[in-house]
Amino acid sequence: MRNYFNDLPKTALGASYWIFAVYLVLPLALMTAMSFKDANFIAFPIGNWTLSWYGKVVQDKQFLEASLYSLGIALATTVSATIIGVWIALLVSAENIWGKAVIFALACLPAVVPGLINAISMRIFIRAVDIPTGTFAIILAHAVHAVPFVVIMVLTRLRSMPANLVDAARDLGADPFIAFLRVTIPYLMPALFGGMIFCVLTSIDDFVRTFFLGGYQPTLPMLIFAKVQGGMSPEINAMATIVLVVTTAIGLYAEHFTRRSRS
Prior knowledge:
Layout: H1 2-34, H2 52-58, H3 61-93, H4 100-112, H5 115-128, H6 135-159, H7 163-171, H8 176-205, H9 208-213, H10 220-229, H11 234-262
């Protein structure tokens, strides 16, 4: 009896984990299953299974254009957020910098501000500085949102970096810039790669900021949202499933690369 009560918290924790996992995975599994239904509406039971909806998606010009547009925005966002995030992380990790806590708090502020508030404030900002809505405004908003995550990942890695690595490079004749390129950057690569993948995924998935700052050309979330307004169909499920599979594969590869780099 005593062993039973001792194991009860562990059993409850395990049960809670599986309930939460089912809660997360079940809607995605249902969405994926509906993308194979041989009918024009979404409902159970699934009589016949088909891949025709995926064929329509890959031949959909709007889907292909939106995918390339979202990917271009994500890449530009990643480059911008990574450069700014690394610079802030190096600034915060320096010893003789005044107000490091304030700099770190301001850099991480976009991560804790609700997305809707962030989008509205960015819309007000671009109007104040006379920046038109569209690609540049979207990249700016996505980069502001992604910078805190790059800062946290890089700063965590920097704090585990032995100080004598850079000192050894300087003793061997390397100037600060060469030491940064050949010592600091290679050591930070797992954190940089993880942060860059995170930037790509969050940018592709970002709907709220794109909705407030976008122009006439839709991104993937905007395209799916527009199609949903006309009614749900298995074609929309197929689009969402393709995006889910691609982003999951990218995330899993990033996790594998990070683990391998740290070992």
